[in-house]
Amino acid sequence: MAGYPYWSVLCFSLPLVLVALLRKSLRPKLKEQYCLADEFVCSLLWLLWSFEISLVSLHTHSSVHYILLFIALLSQRSIYQEATVNTSALIVKSVSFGWSLSRTLLLLLAQLMALPVAMAMILFLHKVLAPFSSPHSEGVSVSGDVLQVEIIQGFIIEAIGTLLLSVPPALVKSRGLIFDFVSASNYTLIEYFFGPFTGAFCNPLSATCFCLFFNKQSLFELLTVYWAGSVTGALIGWRLFYNRMEKLKIP
């Protein structure tokens, strides 16, 4: 099975760093009227990063990878700040905060616009890495068989994974170092337990990017496993945690 050396996957972090620096420099200038641009940049960031995470998790279960993943997540949590990034979370926010349909659709459009840009950057990186590919490499596989998902099992895993993403905001009252630590730990554990089965995207847009790249999953599988599963988990999480916090008047 053809693949790349494990170290080569780190190349996906290069555009991530560049986009992160751009976003950080623009953040003070991004007023509320520019929230669509902010959402686009942050979605692009997350698509590139989650592609790298899922590509490695589906192929290796090395403890070193998850330690590095935790450190990387801990250092990046503050980058996203007020951006939604997760499509299923965007849908839940629009319901819970009573957003207008136009605002929800515009933010969703900003996320979707990041998809072709991320795909172009990922394809470019794979062309750059092509000289390092070997038919007998034991590195990261880039074949279409890297993702084999059963629909029912995949739906349940994505729903549970997305549900667990709702835990940190429910446990930690304010954003800060503790919140970043809990969120990074939570995501790393989700990736550790569920990543080898579905990639543990917990984000419909990230799953779409990955599946389009490998052109492996059918539209039905993409919608039922990743979109329906993730949105279901996000809605259950909102029902269990956010409504409960509101009743208890927890800030």
Protein architecture, described:
- This protein has 251 residues and is mostly helical.
- It has a single domain (3-247), classed as Glycerol uptake facilitator protein (Up-down Bundle), CATH 1.20.1080.10.
- The protein has helices spanning 13-26, 35-57, 63-80, 87-96, 101-129, 151-164, 167-171, 177-198, 204-214, 219-247; strands at residues 3-4, 140-141.
- Helix 4 crosses helix 10 and helix 6 (151-164) packs parallel to helix 10.
Q: Kindly report the name of the CATH homologous superfamily.
A: Glycerol uptake facilitator protein
Poorly predicted runs: 136-144, 247-251
Largest sheet: 2 strands, antiparallel
Percent of residues in helical segments? 55-70%
Number of separate domains: 1
**What structural class do helix, strand and pairing data support?**
mainly alpha
Q: Could you please say which CATH topology applies here?
A: Glycerol uptake facilitator protein
CATH hierarchy, class: Mainly Alpha
Strand content range: under 5%
Contiguous helical run count: 10
In sequence order, what are the helices and strands, one letter per element?
Answer: EHHHHHEHHHHH
- The oligomeric status of these chains comes to single chain
Mean pLDDT: 71
End-to-end separation in angstroms reads 51 Å
* Shape, principal axes of CA atoms: globular
> Any guess at the CATH architecture?
Up-down Bundle
Subcellular location: Membrane
GO molecular function, one term: channel activity
Protein name: Aquaporin
Transmembrane segments: 6-22, 101-125, 151-172, 192-213, 225-242
Task: Set out the fold topology.
Elements: E1 3-4, H1 13-26, H2 35-57, H3 63-80, H4 87-96, H5 101-129, E2 140-141, H6 151-164, H7 167-171, H8 177-198, H9 204-214, H10 219-247
Antiparallel strand pairs: 1-2
